[in-house]
Amino acid sequence: MEQRTEIIKNIIETILARLNVKGGVEFMETSEGARFLVKTNEGALLIGENGQNILALNHLVKKIAEKTFAEEDKDIKEKLTFSLDVNDYQAKRIDDLKNLARLNAQRVRFFKKEIMLKPMTSFERRVIHSVLTEYPDISTESVGEEPHRKVVIKPYQ
């Protein structure tokens, strides 16, 4: 395993230990990039309501990794692209979001009217926008203020 990957895995394991959460950390390369998967019986604690804790944990691990690698590489922020998942929660959530995006794109095509989705995190909105780039006749935009920003899906004008 590459040295940086091992260090990031150790960061995650240290955080888990400090939270008194028992579990293992696996690393894998996916089509979307590097992925660290935490497997634990205490997933609900790490995931949190609507996935808020896992987003915070992901952010914390990235910030610690950036600081750890900053001295050897000043452009580390752009190079540190990995995701952190707990018991496949994020993977399942991404699949659900992709299905939601495609279903609503079909509705927009059929009814020729825009659809506003419920408020989402920036991560969730990014998944919706990304999936719908595959539809040349559909456009998307985020509207509103955090934490109530929503994606609007509409026919391309």
From TrEMBL:
Pfam families: R3H (PF01424). One of its GO terms (molecular function) is RNA binding. Residues 91-157 form the R3H domain. PROSITE patterns: R3H (PS51061). This is R3H domain-containing protein.
